[in-house]
UniProtKB/TrEMBL annotation:
It comes from Thermanaerothrix solaris. Transmembrane segments: none annotated. Residues 6-48 form the Ribonuclease H1 N-terminal domain. This is Ribonuclease H. Endonuclease that specifically degrades the RNA of RNA-DNA hybrids. InterPro entries: Ribosomal_bL9/RNase_H1_N, RNase_H1_N, RNase_H1_N_sf, RNase_H_bac, RNaseH-like_sf, RNaseH_sf.
Length: 204
């Protein structure tokens, strides 16, 4: 994900200003309706940004629109792998263009590729919001992208005691979507045009 922010500018929160840790920033924005904040590498950058409108600073962080069929060169890709033989699920997020792995989860008992992609997207959004990173997030699962839009994982797998860890993550993801806004574009990774998803586990 690149360098982690060291300073946070809060435009709207319990107490606007510049804070030198995520924990200090979080106290100002968690649960505050319409909170506006971003992370920066230096205090000077945070202070300068705070003198400008939030949406103007945020817009500068948005990626430029891609030309048709242009392969993305920035952002984050997620993917999931479901082992049908052993009924185990894994998912992960990588950063473009380096393909550096940001996180990997699993194996979890049972699940599906779409569940894994849904969780990977949401957990990436959670992490990027903490860091004030507005980069796009790519997934090759149209279903998972739809579930995120609906703010609900619409799996037909029934919750069972042996799936506790999986469904705890699903509930946490749904709760976060229902109580948080995010600015990251969610985009379909076009495998036919761009090749394999960079987060693919390579087990096909």
């Amino acid at each position: 994900m690149g360098k982690s922010p060291k300073y946070y500018a809060v435009w709207r929160g319990r107490r606007p200003g510049v804070f030198d840790s995520w924990e200090a920033c979080r106290k100002q924005v968690d649960g505050f309706p319409g909170a506006q904040y971003l992370g920066f590498e230096t205090r000077e950058a945070a202070e300068q940004a705070l003198q400008r409108p939030y949406h103007e600073v945020l817009a500068e962080r948005q990626p430029q629109p891609l030309q048709p069929h242009t392969k993305p060169t920035q952002g984050y890709c997620v993917d999931a792998a479901y082992d049908t033989a052993h009924r185990r699920l894994e998912y992960r997020c990588v950063q473009l263009p380096t393909r550096r792995e940001i996180f990997r989860v699993g194996p979890l008992p049972d699940g599906s590729n779409n569940i894994g992609e849904f969780l990977a997207i949401v957990e990436t959004l959670m992490l990027l919001k903490e860091r004030g990173d507005a980069a796009p997030v790519y997934s090759d699962s149209r279903i998972a992208l739809l579930w995120v839009t609906l703010k609900r994982c619409r799996t037909r797998i029934p919750p069972r005691p042996e799936y506790t860890a999986l469904f705890e993550r699903i509930r946490r993801a749904e709760h976060w979507l229902q109580n948080n806004a995010f600015v990251n574009p969610l985009l379909k990774w076009e495998t036919a045009l761009w090749g394999e998803n960079p987060a693919d586990f390579g087990r096909k």
